[in-house]
């Protein structure tokens, strides 16, 4: 077992930020100078040590190994001594060790466990179980502490141990094989169930943060796993990782990160199946390495096997899912160095590729099962083979001349074999790509001589060792130096600007293309006194010199240089920058007076001419104030100009700019000029509009063609009478037409027109002559009217004077109102008959005459009234609503009300047998309506008084009727109205039967069904439930289509009265007869869980809270008790609130519950619900003593007394509510984050 146990990899146990001190320095450890200290927990062969890593996974380390644990505060943590052990402090080489030794005399000081001895047989006085061999005392454990001296470790570091509890149902003596190893038998059902349980437990640990705490809804831990322990890291040391799981724990300080986790909650122990699985995963043999090459190797390994020394039962045997996953990791910094994963899969072999030649590697394998990760196996070391060197880098030029090149290079990686020679090849400057060897030897530099100046040579390099020759490096091109270049040609001007000059020059023709030539451009400004100054230094063949002055002369020369030296400068050339454009001229001004068609303008030269003389000025003119379009009116060297050919009264804008060799100047400021206006020109003669009338003519004209530069604001019309030369003004205004009245018919008149603006009136137009026409007839006399019948009237009139032309037509207007008459006759007759009139109606009429001259004025209006007649037909008939139907009685009742003056209550009419109608009163035609005749078709017509509402009774339900009405007055009966179709409603439903289906002291559940009279399938039958209140009035409880209703908030032992009514589209049916239901008495409320107080081993006192009397009824209590799994039996019944229970058995559990009983006045009892159950677990004290064969010592064990109390119903409900609340919050967060966003 010790040979197969892999060594502990400390890199998996500690945080990477903390140092791992495998062999701490004695001085630092003794003096305690370091901020952190290391506690070494030694795990002996055959034992296991289980911890939880920082990623939440559990790791089981089997011995022999030393587990380094960090002490962050520099103090020695408390060491808990298991039962039957004593601690002993030993100091060796300045390092103190705490040995935990058993008290038995035959203590085995060696490193082998005494667990191979068979357990002692049980005695008659001992309990019927034998402790598992894993619970027996292990060999002494070594805890290496760090302190300043021997006396520093006081008694405070040795804490009191806590005795563990043993249960006989956990270990079976026949579950072990002959050699103490469980017999592993594969069973399909058991394996599948165990695998499901393992998956469920892993998911539960992941759900609460990696197993750091217990799931909320999980049952409480077993007594074996709920031992008292301080909040520190649990170190379980024993065979298979289970020896101290149930017997004792050793506690040491952990790292800073683990301490932070302990503050959030204690680390929970692993269950037996998980510990066994971790131990099995950790028991994997070291891998084997084969087929080792220079850059790859093949690694093989086998499945993990169970340790031979582990003693577990068949039920605790772990079930491995098939297949397992494996992870191969390698390290090049030693066995304890940093490992890197190279393979992860389910196979048992892997090929490691990409390795370095001649390198020492350490490889290990690690088994994984779901989220459980076993300990790494022992590392295996191997060394890859050597090979040829890596390709070297290209050689570089360290120095050179015109005829030589000195090359250097660096040594590449030798891959395990020393480089002995280098092979340098070149193409001899031919450029053909064919290389020849120019050097072969161990040196790292070489000088190539006898080369041509300014030539290119290509080189490449390879390295050689005992394993072979490497590949050649990349080809590099190197050049030899050239001679000093010749003076270049003078620079040339490529482009010139106001402040810059772009120059270019040529490369010296004698210089080869491979030579790197640089140029220096020098410039001298005229009259500066500084001489030539460098302006550019580079390899370009052109340059733009900026920041120069305008219209200035500059001298330039250029020189070339290379690595060999600098040439003489070129010849000097001169270039001049261009002049700048001039500034804008001053704003132009007006000289003299502005004429209606011209003006004189002048301007001043610009203040800055830009370095060149002004060659010309340009004047632009724009008509209007917007300046949308500009016209060139002058171009020359003068400083003034006369703008002529302008329009009077028009606004002009003018501007000026100048031009020189430097360009065009900006525009000057704009000058705005307004020419004065003149009177408008002559108008065209006015023209006649339409035919001339007898006493007036309509004239129209247009504006003059020339407005004089100002809008025409007024026109004047003059008229010249017939046979006279005198004129008079008949119109003056801005309109373009006018009507001239006061003329005589058939005369000739002359008209002239003139226009005016703000400058005055213009000349008169030519004369226009117009002759007036004949006149219209005079006004007619008032017409006369004669009534032939109520609907027919004859109107007659006389012809008026014709006024020079015969009357050709008469127009008669007729209407019901004086202001809204219309032409009803047009002709030459002197009378007209009006038909289709309304009786007893006032009408108005008037007449006018028409001839060829026009239409005469209307006569005076005449009023005519037609005689009375029978009433008109009723136009509309309406059906009364049900609410309106109840407010009206029969016609006979209405008559009696009007005659007698007595007021009777309204009668209730059913819409199933009655039809309430109303209609619009028709026109009575001058005679008051006395009655109405209602015709139903089949029945005798009904005669009613002068009303507009009536209820027709004694009709058939759900029947259609055709109704029409006619009105009557003193002159006769009017016409019938149109026929209207009305229908009666069906009969309303009968009330259903009401019954009580469920009841309590505060509620009644009522149910009802359909009434005896079934309604139509299309009707929606609904119910109206009412209850009688204290005042005898019925109040509404429910109204709707349901057939049940629950009445709540009632009083106990009280009678309530109900009635129900059915209604549908036909109306509301009658209420049912009254139903009376009585609520029962209410039982007492549930009591809280009783309180238990143990008096001694055989008695206890049970107390509970009292209840107050319920409406005068006394309260008694019933206490029940259950022993073990038997039924509850009554232990007490009475009015007291406590009871002393005696004669209790020592080793039995008791459960108690209590309920309240109401003593009613009628000698009946009402029992309330029982309270939550409380459990009384008596104290048990058991002693385990053992005596066995020779060589075995005695051992004692003491069990702690525990009182276990189950959760109450309120606590369970609160836990369930909290779980549901957390799940709801998580679901809402997921929906918000993944669905909405």
From TrEMBL:
Q: Where is it localised?
A: Golgi apparatus membrane
Q: Does the keyword Membrane apply?
A: yes
Q: Which InterPro entries match?
A: E3_ligase_FN3/SPRY, FN3_dom, FN3_sf, Ig-like_fold
Query: Which membrane topology term applies here?
Result: Single-pass membrane protein
What keywords were assigned to this record? Golgi apparatus, Membrane, Repeat, Transmembrane, Transmembrane helix
Per the record, the similarity remark reads:
Belongs to the FNDC3 family.
Instruction: Report the source organism.
Output: Nothobranchius rachovii
Q: Does the keyword Transmembrane helix apply?
A: yes
Q: Where along the chain is composition biased (Basic and acidic residues)?
A: 185-206
Q: What is its main location?
A: Golgi
- In terms of domain of life, where is this protein from? Eukaryota
Q: Mark the transmembrane ranges.
A: 1213-1236
Q: Where is this region: Disordered?
A: 172-238, 1171-1204
Q: Can you give the residue ranges of the Fibronectin type-III domain?
A: 283-387, 391-484, 487-580, 585-678, 682-775, 776-869, 899-987, 988-1082, 1083-1181
Q: What's the protein name?
A: Fibronectin type-III domain-containing protein 3A
GO cellular component, alphabetical, reads: Golgi membrane
Compositionally biased tracts (Polar residues): 225-235, 1171-1184
* Any Pfam family: fn3
């Amino acid at each position: 077992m010790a040979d197969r146990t892999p060594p502990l990899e400390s890199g998996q146990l500690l945080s990477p930020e903390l140092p791992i001190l495998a062999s701490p320095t004695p001085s630092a450890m003794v003096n305690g100078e370091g901020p952190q200290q290391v506690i070494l927990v030694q795990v002996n062969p055959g034992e296991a040590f289980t911890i939880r890593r920082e990623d939440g996974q559990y790791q089981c380390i089997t011995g022999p190994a030393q587990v380094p644990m960090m002490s962050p505060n520099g103090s020695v943590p408390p060491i808990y001594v298991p039962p039957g052990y004593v601690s002993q402090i030993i100091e060796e080489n300045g390092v103190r060790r705490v040995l935990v030794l058993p008290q038995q005399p035959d203590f085995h000081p060696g490193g082998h466990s005494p667990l191979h001895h068979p357990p002692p047989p049980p005695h008659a006085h001992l309990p019927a179980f034998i402790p598992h061999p894993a619970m027996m005392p292990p060999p002494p454990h070594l805890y290496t502490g760090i302190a300043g001296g021997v006396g520093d470790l006081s008694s405070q570091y040795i804490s009191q141990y806590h005795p563990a509890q043993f249960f006989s149902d956990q270990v079976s003596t026949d579950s072990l094989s002959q050699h103490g190893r469980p017999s592993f038998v594969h069973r399909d059902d058991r394996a599948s169930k165990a695998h499901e349980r393992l998956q469920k437990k892993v998911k539960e640990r992941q759900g609460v943060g990696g197993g750091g705490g217990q799931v909320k809804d999980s049952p409480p831990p077993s007594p074996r796993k709920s031992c008292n322990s301080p909040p520190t890291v649990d170190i379980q040391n024993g065979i298979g990782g289970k020896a101290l799981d149930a017997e004792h724990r050793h506690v040491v300080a952990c790292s800073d990160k683990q301490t932070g986790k302990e503050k959030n909650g204690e680390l929970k122990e692993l269950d037996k199946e998980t510990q066994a699985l971790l131990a099995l995963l950790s028991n994997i043999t070291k891998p084997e390495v084969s087929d080792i090459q220079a850059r790859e190797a093949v690694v093989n390994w086998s499945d993990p096997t169970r340790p031979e020394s582990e003693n577990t039962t068949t039920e605790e045997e772990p079930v491995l899912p098939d297949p397992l996953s494996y992870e191969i990791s390698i390290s090049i910094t030693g066995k304890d160095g940093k490992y890197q994963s190279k393979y992860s899969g389910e196979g048992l072999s892997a090929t490691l590729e990409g390795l370095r030649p001649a390198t020492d590697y350490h490889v290990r394998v690690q088994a994984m099962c779901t989220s459980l990760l076993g300990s790494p196996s022992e590392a295996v070391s191997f060394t890859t083979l050597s090979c040829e060197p890596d390709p070297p880098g290209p050689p570089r030029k360290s120095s050179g001349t015109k005829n030589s090149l000195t090359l250097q290079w660096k040594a590449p990686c030798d891959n395990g074999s020393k480089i002995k020679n280098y092979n340098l090849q070149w193409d001899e400057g031919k450029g053909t790509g064919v290389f020849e060897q120019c050097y072969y030897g161990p040196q790292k530099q070489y000088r190539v001589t006898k080369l041509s100046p300014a030539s290119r040579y290509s080189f490449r390099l390879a390295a050689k060792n005992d394993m072979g020759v490497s590949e050649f490096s990349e080809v590099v091109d190197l050049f030899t130096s050239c001679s000093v270049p010749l003076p270049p040609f003078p620079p040339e001007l490529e482009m010139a600007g106001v402040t810059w000059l772009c120059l270019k020059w040529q490369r010296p023709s004698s210089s080869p293309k491979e030579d790197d030539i640089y140029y220096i451009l020098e410039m001298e400004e005229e009259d500066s006194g500084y001489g030539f100054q460098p302006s550019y230094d580079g390899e370009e063949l052109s340059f733009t010199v900026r920041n120069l002055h305008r219209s200035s002369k500059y001298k330039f020369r250029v020189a070339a240089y290379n690595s060999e030296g600098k040439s003489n400068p070129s010849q000097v050339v001169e270039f001049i920058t261009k002049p700048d454009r001039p500034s804008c001229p001053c704003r132009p001004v007006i000289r003299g007076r502005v004429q209606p068609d011209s003006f004189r303008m002048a301007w001043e030269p610009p203040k800055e001419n830009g370095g060149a003389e002004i060659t010309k000025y340009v004047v632009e003119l724009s008509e209007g104030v917007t300046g949308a379009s500009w016209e060139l009116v002058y171009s020359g060297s003068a400083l003034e100009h006369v703008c002529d050919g302008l329009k009077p009264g028009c606004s002009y804008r003018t501007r000026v700019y100048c031009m020189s060799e430097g360009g065009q100047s900006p525009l000057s400021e704009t000058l705005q000029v307004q020419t004065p206006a003149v009177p408008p020109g002559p108008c065209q003669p006015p023209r006649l509009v339409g035919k001339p009338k007898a006493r007036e003519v309509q004239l129209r004209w247009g504006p003059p063609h020339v407005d004089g530069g100002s809008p025409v604001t007024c026109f004047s019309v003059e008229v010249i009478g017939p046979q006279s030369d005198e004129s008079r003004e008949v119109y003056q205004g801005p309109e373009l037409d006018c009507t001239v009245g006061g003329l005589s018919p058939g005369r000739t008149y002359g008209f002239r027109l003139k226009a005016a603006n703000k400058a005055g009136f213009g000349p008169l137009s030519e004369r226009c002559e117009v002759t007036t026409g004949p006149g219209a007839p005079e006004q007619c006399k008032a017409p006369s009217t004669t009534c032939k019948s109520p609907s027919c009237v004859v109107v007659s009139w006389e012809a008026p004077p014709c006024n020079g032309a015969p009357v050709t037509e008469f127009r008669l207007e007729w209407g019901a109102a004086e202001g809204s008459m219309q032409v009803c006759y047009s002709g030459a007759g002197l009378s007209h008959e009006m038909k289709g009139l309304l009786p007893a109606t006032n009408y108005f009429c008037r007449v006018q005459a028409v001839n060829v001259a026009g239409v005469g004025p209307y006569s005076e209006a005449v009023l005519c009234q037609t005689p009375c007649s029978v009433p008109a037909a009723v136009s509309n008939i309406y059906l009364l609503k049900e609410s309106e139907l109840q407010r009206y009685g029969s016609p006979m009742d209405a008559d009696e009300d009007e005659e007698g003056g007595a007021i009777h209550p309204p009668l209730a009419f059913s819409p199933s047998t009655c039809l309430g109608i109303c209609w619009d009163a028709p026109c009575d035609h001058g005679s008051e309506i006395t009655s109405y005749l209602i015709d139903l078709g089949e029945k005798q017509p009904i005669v009613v008084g002068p009303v507009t509402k009536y209820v027709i009774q004694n009709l058939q339900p759900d029947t259609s009727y055709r109704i029409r009405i006619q009105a009557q007055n003193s002159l006769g009966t009017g016409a019938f109205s149109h026929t209207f179709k009305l229908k009666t409603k069906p009969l309303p439903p009968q009330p259903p039967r009401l019954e009580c289906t469920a009841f309590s002291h505060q509620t009644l559940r009522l149910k009802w069904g359909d009434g005896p009279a079934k309604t139509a399938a299309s009707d929606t039958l609904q119910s109206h439930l009412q209850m009688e209140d204290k005042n005898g009035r019925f109040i509404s409880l429910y109204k709707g289509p349901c057939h049940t209703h629950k009445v709540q908030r009632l009083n106990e032992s009280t009678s309530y009265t109900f009635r129900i009514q059915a209604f549908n589209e036909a109306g509301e049916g009658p209420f049912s007869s009254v139903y009376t239901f009585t609520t029962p008495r209410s039982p007492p409320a549930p009591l809280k869980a009783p309180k238990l107080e143990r008096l001694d081993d055989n008695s206890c006192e049970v107390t509970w809270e009292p209840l107050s009397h319920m409406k005068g009824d006394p309260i008694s209590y019933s206490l029940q008790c259950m022993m073990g799994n038997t039924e509850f039996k009554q232990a007490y019944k009475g009015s007291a609130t406590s009871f002393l229970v005696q004669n209790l058995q020592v080793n039995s559990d008791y459960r108690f519950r209590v309920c309240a009983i109401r003593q009613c006045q009628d000698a009946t009892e009402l029992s309330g619900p029982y309270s939550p159950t409380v459990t009384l677990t008596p104290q048990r004290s058991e002693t385990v003593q053992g005596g066995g064969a020779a060589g075995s010592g005695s051992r004692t064990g003491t069990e702690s007394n525990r009182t276990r109390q189950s959760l109450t119903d309120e606590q369970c409900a609160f836990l369930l509510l909290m779980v549901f609340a957390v799940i709801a919050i998580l679901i809402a967060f997921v929906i918000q984050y993944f669905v909405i966003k």
